[in-house]
Amino acid sequence: MDKGRYRGFLSIFFFVAGISFSTWASRIPTIKANFGLNDAELGTLLLTMPISSLIGLPISGFLVSRFDSRIPLILSFLTQALSLILIGFASSMPVLVIAVCLFAFSTRILNIAVNTQALTIQKMYDRKINGSFHALWSTGGIVGIGLSTFLLKLEVPLHLHFGIIAGMTALITVGLSNFLLKGDRAEKGNKIIIGKPDPFVSLLGVIVFFSAVCEGGMFDWSGIYFKDVVNEDIFTTGYLIFMTFMAMSRFISDRIIEYVGLERMYIMSSSLVVSGILLAIIFPYFYTALIGFSMVGFGTAAIVPMTFTLAGTSKKYSAGMAISIVTTYVIGGMLLGPPLIGYIAHAFGLQKAFITFAIAGFMIVPVSQLFFRHKRKLEAAS
Hints:
about 375 residues; Growth Hormone, Chain: A; 15 helices
């Protein structure tokens, strides 16, 4: 099978992953209301996700070293479908917590598997294409939010909504699994080396940690911000505009990077995130919040895919293991950020809590500058 077909079939899985994740994120306000949770209690629920995700670090390392990436990809997609069904039918907090933990765990393995496939396929081309995969994830997110909005208007119950998405995910995974790239298991660099952290991978991890705090926070709290602060009944609007501009940015980010370079792209992204968050905080009205959220979506979009691309050039680790390590920081930021916002919002209000995103967005600049200085030193020494 030629590289175009591998790219096409993997794109479908990125698209489906976006639908699945946005289905969960867009209905968080519904789950909050169904269980009568306040902001702090919701934050505690979301805090269970990074814990279960971190448990996946040694497991993901084992899967990367033992199997082609398509094996954990298939297993994680099917497990995520199961977790959505469990979330939809959960009638008690213990069951909900277990289901959410399973969702976070499977999402971690899924992210590593699809991105390992993406970097391997990118090597078949003479240009960067990783951004386009992530653009399709965001596009899937838009479709998921649109479907959630439609089903909310029809008052479709949560368990039926999640069951539809879970069934679609399982059918596509089983039906298309044989068309994924095979034979991509790396023969070396698959073990985490205990000792002094590798600055190359660690600094990349810190960059995406701050980006993921913003991105994860927008996933989980944008709907609640539009419902409680902007006072919009159709609370998915903010999440929808955020994901729309994230997708738009990712479709063109590879070309922008070729023009301005990776170093400047981090600075541009950071500036958009900070400006957008501050606009939404200072002017918490429908249109200004929409503009602010669109800026944040455009700004955060390129950071994760271009950081994964850089991680794939590690001399110490295989692409799969480097992505696994960096993904730990991504998951940490994406899943620690939302509960932190919940606790701050409970104490000071959600509008003030969103300042956290502006601070995290700003930190991308100095950390990225440290990374590129380190990278230039490595290149000069080699």
